[in-house]
Amino acid sequence: MSDPFFQPVSGIDLPRFAGVPSFMRLPHLSPIDPRYADVQIGIVGIPWDSGTTNRPGARHGPRQLRDLSTLIRSGNPVTGINPFETVNCADLGDIPPNPVNIINCMDRITAFYDALKGHGITPMTAGGDHLSSLPILRALARDNPIGLIQFDSHTDLFDSYFDGNKFTHGTPFRRAIEEGLIDPNRMVQIGIRGTSYNSADIEWGEAQGVRIIRIEEFFDRGIKDVMIEAREIVGAAPTYCTFDIDFVDPAYAPGTGTPEIGGPNSYQAQQVIRELAGFNLIGADLVEVSPPFDPTGTTAWLGASLMFELLCILSQVA
User: Fold this and answer.
1) Beta strands in the chain, from DSSP E residues, in sequence order
2) Which 3 state secondary structure label does DSSP give 317?
3) How many CB atoms lie within 10 A of CB 80?
4) DSSP state, residue 98
């Protein structure tokens, strides 16, 4: 059971429109807080989108996700999980980004997650663009390569953009494989679709052993069958989950920088996460929510809801 200190503020006690927002109305702690060492799952914001190659805005994602997450209640009516009663969860704030220096900002992110790992805290991250995942993996997989399950409409396996730039939101998982952070034979990408420049990313990934499940196969086979295969691929060893909001069809999640039509709906997005029950997850992120493209907050509300689903899964492992 969790410590009562780490319970979220109830909307019955304080209206959800009142108070300073934190992720899911949890206590907000800094590393100097004496209760920091008691945290088991930490929710972290990375307000950074310097890896974006076209439509920026994901740097504003954590703030809107944090605000909309105040609508979350404690219990999951489908799985029966209340993560806040199971483990000590807290909002650990945002990593201060360097928006003009990609390398320095990645170093800052890695250092933050190194410290989390040292405290034994499992991270649940709100991005930020998808390049944010690379410095997280540099910390979590420093000792041994890990498995990866990726829900996305893009592989993010390209080599470079714009005169050989190796670090964009289209390259993080190629770098992660090259750096030995991910075991490509324990990596599965689900939902891949959209027009393309060429097939270099697909060809390179498959040559390394990455299992790429395109959206047509996803719909033809169904969620349960696809997730059974994903479980077989990653096995029982430590695995990280990364969820790009553009996995979801833009009819349900328009607030993202690189939307692709023909994707899953909101309910199907919940379903794939619920099928992660039993996976040995050591962390997760949800990235690419871009508030300028959806001022209604619908995309952020979906993102916060999916973060809650991921938190429910992580709470059974942490």
Assistant:
1) 41-46, 89-94, 122-127, 146-151, 182-192, 211-214, 239-244, 281-287
2) coil
3) 8
4) -
Structure tokens given for 61: 């994602």
> pLDDT tens-digit profile of 149-173?
999 999 999 999 988 889 999 999 9
Distance CA 309, CA 76 (A): 8
CATH 3.40.800.10 fits 4-315, yes or no: yes
First to last CA, the chain: 12
| Predicted model pTM | 0.97
Instruction: Output the six-digit token pair for 102.
Output: 């990609």
The rounded distance, in Å, linking the Cα atoms of 286 and 251 is 18
Q: Of 41, 45, 79, whose CA–CA distance to 300 is shortest?
A: 45
Q: What pairs with residue 190 in β-bridges?
A: 151, 213
Tokens standing for 249? 């069809």
pLDDT 10s digits, 63-118:
999 999 999 999 999 999 999 999 999 999 999 999 999 999 999 999 999 999 99
Number of neighbouring beta carbons within 10 Å of residue 100: 8
**Distance (Å, whole) CA 266 – CA 269:** 5
